[in-house]
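Renewal narrative, Specific Aim 1. Our central claim is that a sequence can be written position by position from structural information alone. The example that follows is taken directly from our test logs and has not been curated for this report. It begins with the structure tokens describing the chain, in the order in which they were read.
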């Protein structure tokens, strides 16, 4: 759950509204802080091949079907999402990209390019990272 403007919003609800548009094939919604420190919704959208739609058209489409507090403030068009080795979307990386996209005059522009997804062959399992599993001992 995300909380822009003090109201809880489910990203799945916004993603479902974006997917209802005929040009959208996939959508992921994340929240990021803007320059004022307020949390804003940013949608990352993959379009159907041969389809074109503008950011303003998608935002207006969301505004017509849901309260304005739930509409994304920015739409970033992309060809692929950063994924884990198991194929899950890496929302942490999308949040970083969303924060950059919310900066006026900055960001990645209207189209985002994503590096190739990390596959199982690219992960070095010879030395597992277990530092996060160590806990400090409690002394009484």
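The sequence written for that structure reads:
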């Amino acid at each position: 759950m995300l909380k822009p403007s003090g109201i809880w919003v489910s990203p799945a609800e916004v993603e479902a509204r974006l997917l209802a548009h005929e040009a959208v094939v996939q959508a992921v919604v994340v929240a990021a802080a803007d320059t004022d420190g307020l949390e804003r919704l940013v949608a990352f959208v993959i379009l159907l091949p041969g389809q074109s739609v503008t950011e303003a058209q998608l935002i207006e489409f969301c505004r017509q079907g849901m309260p304005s507090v739930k509409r994304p403030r920015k739409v970033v068009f992309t060809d692929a999402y950063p994924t884990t080795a198991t194929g899950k979307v890496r929302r942490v990386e999308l949040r970083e990209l969303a924060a950059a996209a919310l900066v006026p005059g900055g960001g990645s522009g209207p189209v985002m390019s994503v590096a190739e997804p990390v596959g199982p062959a690219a992960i070095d399992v010879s030395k597992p990272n277990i530092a996060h599993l160590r806990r400090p001992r409690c002394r009484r």
